[in-house]
Specification:
- The structure is a single chain.
- By secondary structure, the protein is of the alpha+beta class.
- It has 9 helices and 25 strands.
- Strand 22 (477-484) and strand 23 form a beta hairpin.
- The radius of gyration is 22 Å and the shape is globular.
């Protein structure tokens, strides 16, 4: 079949060509006040025979109910082999339920493995934009190559989404998003645009905040270009939360009510399976996704189940900024019973790392794993070393169990993909018991889509840590990975100006990881 690139389909960030909107008598109604598809379409969770298709009906997206009536609405969907929908291979009707914000999550099955498909929805006679998606290769299939992009941290107020325009142009088969899809803070001044509602604490508030982000045409284009694999970090709920505690160690009952609302709305707005749908403040987001015999993605959640903060008094309140900068070491930080993932998820992950037979194994997660200490910036003259305790650095025993598992299980070609720190970083990860030996894995942090890291001297502090091969905190962007049986090429793609929606992009660093040789083989 003739393969058109996503650039052809989504030129200049356009969501769909009018010629494709021919599904019904009223399909000539395009995006505007008469469409319920103001938030676009998306796909995700590709499997060998299907994927999840998503949309949410919201003719007035900045209203708490999206401008929809309080009743279930039937939504027709189609999957076709061609963009003109002459060869429809799957179709059906789903219900957009007000309980789920009139979102639609269709778990399509029965498709052929390793194929591209087109999809669309119709509600009330109005056709949605057209999206392109694909299935994963068959289990164990030999796959020559895979291109995917990954990013994180897309604060609406900090910039425009030029990064997503360039992701679409890079034509990936997969897109990974590693947390901070929204930011929950109240509207601020000094950015390029402002959040459109107060800080959210309930379902209605979070729905408006997600709508603010998802109305962006460049973000919609990226969702329509390829299937996504997503996980969350903190800002989908509240800054630097840990389990049932907010950043101030406040009332856990009140915080869990907020977390329940945030988790529900996260699921409502992303292409996730029913298995990930929250029940109150609880959700299972960790899972594996396979790409034939070439790759497995182990997607984890390091927020929901993590233990209490180390080296800080439980009555911590206004002093929380000290905790964010870093803490002096203490015995509690090294307590082997402390966990970042929770006991159940950690056992699941260690088991997966032992069972995988994929040639490449990508740990898709939120925060920097590589050991990272720094001189206390509050009192540099004292030379005291502090540890950023909101990352894996605050849970070293839990981190080391994963590092040891890679070595003990001989997990093939482990690579960590990370976000959170708003900086491009490339590192070699070493065995905790053999720090001078060859690396056991590589880690790549793919910058941030827009969010800033303005800490003076951060680059120099980062490079002072063993294993860190590259660090850049003043450039926004994303990472692109070209994977084959022989190796993995990782490009850091930096924007000239994330505040400009038309910003150009360039490769600011390039890395190679060779199959059978852990760590970074070459950097340029």
């Amino acid at each position: 079949m003739l393969r058109k690139t996503r650039r052809d389909i989504l030129k200049a960030g356009a969501i769909a060509a009018p010629a494709l909107l021919t599904f019904s008598a009223r399909a000539g109604v395009l995006l505007g006040s008469d469409t319920p598809f103001t938030l676009g379409v998306a796909s995700g969770e590709p499997s060998p025979d299907g994927m999840v298709l998503w949309t949410r009906l919201a003719p007035h997206p900045l209203e708490a109910g999206g401008g929809m009536p309080p009743r279930r609405v039937p939504v027709r969907w189609q999957v076709a082999e061609d963009e003109g929908f002459a060869r429809v291979v799957r179709s059906g009707t789903a219900a957009a339920d007000p309980v789920a914000g009139h979102s639609v999550h269709v778990e399509v099955s029965g498709l052929r493995p390793g194929r591209s498909y087109f999809y669309r929805f119709v509600a009330d006679g109005v056709a949605s934009p057209v999206g392109r998606t694909r299935t994963a290769p068959a289990p164990g299939a030999i796959v020559d190559n895979l291109r995917f992009c990954f990013g994180s941290c897309q604060k609406y107020e900090a910039g425009h989404y030029a990064a997503w325009r360039h992701v679409v142009a890079d034509d990936p088969e997969l897109i990974l998003f590693l947390g901070d899809y929204i930011y929950e803070n109240a509207p601020g001044n000094g950015g390029v645009r402002r959040h459109l509602n107060p800080e959210p604490f309930d379902v209605a508030g979070y729905r408006i905040r997600y709508a603010t982000y998802k109305m962006d045409p460049l973000l919609q284009a990226a969702h329509a270009a390829a299937p996504w694999i997503v996980t969350w970090d903190d800002h989908e709920v509240a800054n630097d939360y840990a389990g049932a505690l907010d950043e101030h160690n406040g009332d856990p009952v009140a915080f869990l009510a907020r977390r329940a609302a945030a988790y529900q709305v996260y699921w409502e707005h992303l292409p996730l399976r029913a298995a990930a749908r929250p029940s109150g403040p609880d959700a299972r987001l960790y899972r594996t996704l396979n790409w034939g015999a070439l790759a497995q993605f182990q997607v984890i959640d390091d927020r929901q189940f993590r233990g209490t903060r180390a080296c800080q008094p439980p009555e911590l309140l206004a002093e929380h900024r000290d905790y964010l900068v870093g803490v002096l070491d203490c015995p509690q930080r090294h307590d082997t019973s402390r966990t970042m993932l929770g006991d159940v998820q950690e056992r699941w992950l260690l088991d997966a790392l032992g069972k995988t037979r994929a040639q490449w194994n990508f740990l898709a997660q939120q925060t920097l794993m590589t050991p990272f200490a720094m001189i206390d910036p509050r009192h540099p003259e004292q030379g005291a070393v502090v540890h950023p305790a909101d990352r894996w650095e605050g849970y070293p025993a839990a981190r080391d169990r994963i590092f040891r598992r890679w070595a003990e299980a001989k997990t093939p070609n482990p690579v960590v993909l990370s976000g959170d720190i708003h900086a491009f970083t490339a590192t070699d990860i070493h065995h905790p018991d053999h720090p001078d030996a060859t690396p056991v894995a590589a880690e790549f942090v793919g910058g941030s889509i827009t969010s800033l890291n303005n800490h003076p001297g951060w680059r120099e502090e980062a490079k002072a840590n063993p294993g860190i091969r590259f660090a850049e905190n003043e450039v926004r962007g994303y990472a692109r990975v070209d994977l084959s049986g022989k190796g993995s090429e990782v490009l850091f793609r930096g924007l000239a100006d994330a505040r400009n929606p038309d910003s150009t992009v360039s490769t600011i660093a390039r890395f190679e990881v060779e199959s059978g040789r852990a760590g970074i083989a070459d950097a340029s």
